[in-house]
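2024-03-11 09:14:02 DEBUG pipeline.ingest accepted 1 chain
2024-03-11 09:14:02 DEBUG pipeline.ingest length=467
2024-03-11 09:14:03 DEBUG pipeline.predict start
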Amino acid sequence: MNVLRKAAVLQRWPNLLIAIAALISSANVMAQGSRLPEWLDEDAYLSGLLDLHTDKDARHREAIRNKLTELIAAAIRQSPTAIEADLLISSAKQEVESAARGTSPQISVSGQNTYTQTDAGLTSPANGKTGLLVQMQMPLYDSGRTSNAIQSREALLASQKAKREVQYIGIAQEVIAACANHTLQQILLSVNQIHATRMTKLTETISEIATIDPGRASELTQAKSRQLQAELTLQTLQGKITETTAELERLLKSPERYDCLEGLKYFIGDESTENYVSNAEVHPQVIATQMEAQSQLAFASQIKASRKPLVQLGIGRSPVNLALSNEYQNSIAVTATIPIYDGFAADKSADAATQRGAAANARAEAQKEKIQSDLKIKTAAAKNAARRLEKYTELLKVSRKVREDYYIQWSTLGRRSLFELLAIESEQLSLQSNYVSSLVDLISSNAYQQVQTGNLLKELKLDQDEN
């Protein structure tokens, strides 16, 4: 019996030696000081963003505003739709000028060379000579034809200017959204790089332990699995950054010249945005449609005026009889033209224009309601994002402390399993990712409200009429 007991004790010695070696290894880790390993404390990038949404330092406000102005102005300069809008405005101005010339005198000159001969062989002394006919006509009274034509073209010009502002709003919204998405992916990449570094270092630590204690090889497998997941996530995020960079290159041509993150800080804040909802009344899209309606109504009035009297003054100088004489005569005439019957074609055209105007007004009301609804949704989204940010900020601080405690308990006291340590690491990464997503949601919602109402373009002085 004593021999068997001795044998059993000797069989347990290897396991006891391994356990002692593991304790010595853990003690060496703690002997380096009371602080945690550097690789576990690499959240500097994110900690710099933790309170970013509450930063109200007025000293940087103007610099941030300038960065945003540069960003949007560059996108507008590069946009083909902005160039198209400018050309359409120029065209509409020419239409106004053309309509305004409706009351200008119309002068024409015509020439005729006639040769005549009678049956008896007699010829006219005017043979071979060119006779000139000079005429001038000018409307004295047109029953509102010209004035209504001018009003119609001016309304179209105002509509084109409002449409250009809509184009500017669209460009600003697009470049801000692209910047927000690019910034989101960049920050998420940095956060996940920190996580991947932690997983790599943790795997190396467990690998060292597993060489001494083969019984913990399963922990090494778990750690390597998490490390691989982190690396795959990095590859996915790098692919997304490639996509967002391509989008920025399309909008800005040289995105590296502009600071997206700095410009986006303009939209970080918790100020009230309720007033943006009421501004839907003067949204450029609504104004553009209302101006189209006014243009159609003025065009209908122009058509109706064409059925009313037209009085014109005519002045001319012409040959008395070009075939027989070289004498000229001067004439002055006042002509009144009153349409009697045209099959009601003009009335039908006027009714069609009136109906198009009514349809445009109805469309403007629908646009107004849609804009108000979208702005209300974005206002609520901004408030929710701000509340989430506050909660995630506090949770991250608590979670970080818990994660540090878990590491100490796992590495030195053996009171936590690796599974629990990996779970808290995943929880920390999830909180960090959600925090960043909420921050970008807040930026996007605030930007949408300020951009869509045209307030941002006015603030940045990018809505000025240069044409």
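2024-03-11 09:14:41 DEBUG pipeline.report The chain has one domain: 36-115+127-459.
2024-03-11 09:14:41 DEBUG pipeline.predict end
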